[in-house]
Amino acid sequence: MATEFITTAISGPYNVDDGDEILMSAGALLTSTDDGFKTTAGTTASFLIAGEVLTYDDGIQLFNGSYEITIAAQGSLHANGDGIYTGGALDRIGVLNAGEILSNATAVDIRSTQTRFENSGTIAGQEDYAMYFRNNSSVTGPAELHLINSGTISSGSTTRDAVRTYEVDNVRVLNSGTVLASEDAFSFVSGDVVAMSNSGDIQAGIEATSNSDFRLTNTGDIQSAHSYALELSQGTGFVANEGTMAGILVNSGSSFAFRNSGTLTSVTIDALSSYALTSAIYNSGTIAGDVVLGNFTASDLVVNLGTILGSVEMGEGADRYQGNGAGVATGGVHGAAGSDTLVGGDLADALYGGANNDRLVGQGGNDLLDGSVGVDSLYGGNGNDTLNGGGGEDVLFGGNGDDEMLGGADTDRLSGNNGADILNGEDGNDSLFGGNDDDTLNGGADDDRLFGGSGVNTFIGGTGRDVMYAQSGEDIFLFYDANESATGTARDVVYGYDLGQDQIDLAAVAPGVLSYMGTSAFSGTAREVRLIEYASGSTVVQVDVDADGSADMELMIYRVQGLSEDDFIL
């Protein structure tokens, strides 16, 4: 055990014994055609290097034991081999570098149970990793790494990472410096807990593979030549971004959570469907690209108070998208399979339910809501919204504003609520409720029920036996073709008709102008309209289109008589 001073130029290798304290002063030089400093197994030693170590092989070669290494600001390790290399597994090592560790191979290659490494200088691996940390496989128990960087770490290799860990169970990384690489800046493989905080500049990606728990907090800048700032495979992951990041790619795992108040280019969660990955994304910043959650049966959550400059593609499970305030996804939100709940914010949202039974809520703004297949519930909220139920028995509520609603296939229920709304039942036996203001109700095919509400409403029954209910307002009952209302018990029925206020528009039923016959019989001339008043108090309107003297179209006006030519648009 001795304190050994190196103050001049010497040749190596320099053998270090157990208990030695090596003090290399500024201006001193150690050159070697082999290794620079070399230890033997079972050694405990410390190094303070303020001079220059220049070697053909490794700068410092360490074997089993415990070590402390300090490289001062004016100190350097320049090695053709590794800068610091552990030829055997260590119990513990602590390194403080304020100078330079430059290597044509791996600058720092450490296998240890406990490692603490602080860098405020420069570490560069020219043709390999800049730093490679592995577990001490000869010792039972978890390996630990604490890496603190405020300097520069770089790899000149096109296939190697700047920093790589392998089977290190507990990894803590604090970076406020710069990390550069053509491949990944950091690669964490087969560990347990990886916790990383970055406030610096990382100009290459981060890859985390087969770690039980990965956590990243970023207030700095993380970019990558491979599109993704972070690629996560297997295990759980949590990322909090307040800075700037390129995209995130999650290949597989059990759960992933992301909180963004900064800027991100994209989020892609694209694993095999056999992985039950649950995702939660909270965005109050900017995601300048798509958010793709993959084909999973688990339930995903996206809460968006910020801006997503792309689309949100939910997974296959029962997912939820919640847009709040000014939060918006410019490319729309797509629910895919699963019974999803998609809620927009105050701006214009486009929400697509996809398959199964979905719930879509527009809230503020002029929204587009598309239920697609399944029994869907669509709520427009405020704004001039467009609601499309798609296939399945859907329920559509327009809310405030001038809305346009399409029921789609099957039996749907459409409610315009406030505003001048356009309701289209389309296929199926639909129920349409206009609500307040001046609405247009179009039943479409099949047997529909149309309720006008207050306001000046336009009723278009369409084909099938339709029942139309008028209330206050000067309503129009519009027919485009004689086959839109059959004769006999299959004819359409109007309730609540107001004489002198409402009108029946038959102008498009036949080419040319129709002739009003009152209660007289048909004369055998084409395009005639006549009335039959029944003792029950109802009136049946008949239209002879083809001059055969019989009705081609009928319409019952329930419990109203005394219609005149002024009640018709012919």
UniProtKB/TrEMBL annotation:
It is found in: Secreted. PROSITE patterns: HEMOLYSIN_CALCIUM. The keyword Secreted applies. Its main location: secreted. It holds the Pfam family HemolysinCabind. Coiled coil: none annotated. One of its GO terms (cellular component) is extracellular region. One of its GO terms (molecular function) is calcium ion binding. The keyword Lipid biosynthesis does not apply. Keywords: Secreted. PANTHER family: S-LAYER PROTEIN. This is Hemolysin, chromosomal. It comes from Tropicibacter naphthalenivorans. The gene is hlyA_2.
